[in-house]
Automatic annotation (TrEMBL):
Transmembrane segments: none annotated. The keyword Disulfide bond does not apply. It is found in: Cell membrane; Golgi apparatus membrane. Keywords: Golgi apparatus. This is CRAL-TRIO domain-containing protein. Pfam families: CRAL_TRIO. GO terms for cellular component: Golgi membrane; plasma membrane. Residues 99-273 form the CRAL-TRIO domain.
Length: 303
């Protein structure tokens, strides 16, 4: 091994130790050993890009595969291939979603503050979606690219900013899905295709980034639809989902402060000055001071 190779290896060893020390609390020893085993296996075959050489990234893949190192490695390598095939690393620069404003008008969704732990809070009013207008505004392929670009933004900006604001490691999202009025009759073929593809992407390539999903205002029509939709989901993901009816508020407020919950969902936030709660991407990731601090922390990890 050359001096340069040894130097790079020492630098990467230092990097992962710093990454570990940033996390709050003591890691489980079994987790530590599994992460190290996966990391060594990937390094041995030169299949661990430096941007993914991170304790928490590797841990997500291990958790999704029940700490089976062989299966976690296979999943990780599939993710790398997908990113290369779909040019994910350049999507923020190359993909321009000009229909963003029009999409928001017929598909209310967005990030809105954080939960009580400090995780990003994502809200989607899928029951209010005008599917006919949505398909006029964009295509399934373009919407999926938009979804990927948002996932990348969450990993690179939202989680680091939330980690700085909360003073602890944040790497997952709490989500609220309002399905009022949604059922088998108005969930079109195009909507099903979009759901299945997005679920596949999130499960296979962004594992363990969902902390909890609250599906609210679920009526009998949605519950019938849910029996079909959940067959496309991993068992580990299903355990993180609560399907609630109209009496959801007390459960949701256990996870979210009223000030971070829009008024239309029973909270106290209106965001009237900025065009509505789902239009402004509210959260620590819009605070210039926090963004600067998260960038400094990232540079320290790379030293």
């Amino acid at each position: 091994m050359s001096f340069r190779s040894i130097e790079q290896l020492l630098r990467r060893n230092s990097k992962i130790k710093i990454s570990q020390s940033i996390a709050n609390g003591i890691h489980d020893q079994k987790e530590e050993r599994s992460v190290q085993a996966l990391r060594e296996s990937l390094l041995a075959t030169n299949q661990l890009p430096e941007k993914f050489d991170d304790h928490h990234v590797l841990l997500r893949f291990l958790r999704m595969r029940g700490f089976n190192v062989i299966k976690a490695k296979e999943m990780f390598l599939n993710m790398l291939k997908w990113r290369e095939d779909c040019a994910v690393d350049t999507i923020a620069k190359d993909f321009k979603f000009e229909e963003f404003d029009a999409l928001k008008r017929c598909y209310p969704h967005g990030f809105h503050g954080v939960d009580r732990f400090g995780r990003p809070l994502y809200i989607e009013r899928i029951g209010s979606v005008d599917l006919s207008k949505l398909m006029q505004v964009t295509s399934i392929d373009r919407y999926i690219k938009y979804h990927i670009s948002e996932q990348e933004k969450t990993l690179s900006l939202r989680y680091p900013a939330c980690s700085v604001a909360a003073k602890k490691h944040i790497s997952s999202t709490t989500a609220i899905l309002d399905v009022k009025g949604l059922g088998m009759n108005n969930f079109s073929k195009a909507a099903r295709e979009m759901f299945i593809e997005i679920q596949k992407i999130d499960s296979n390539y962004y594992p363990e980034t969902l902390h909890q999903l609250y599906i609210i205002n679920a009526g009998s029509g949605f519950r019938a639809l849910w029996k079909v939709l959940k067959t496309f989901m991993e068992a580990r993901t299903l355990k993180k989902i609560q399907v609630l009816g109209t009496n959801y508020l007390s459960t949701v407020l256990e996870a979210v402060e009223p000030s971070n919950l829009p008024e239309f969902l029973g909270g106290t936030c209106t965001c009237s000055a900025t065009g509505g709660c789902l239009l402004q991407d509210k959260g620590p990731w819009t605070d210039a001071g926090i963004i600067r601090a998260s960038k400094v922390r990232s540079l320290q990890q790379d030293m």
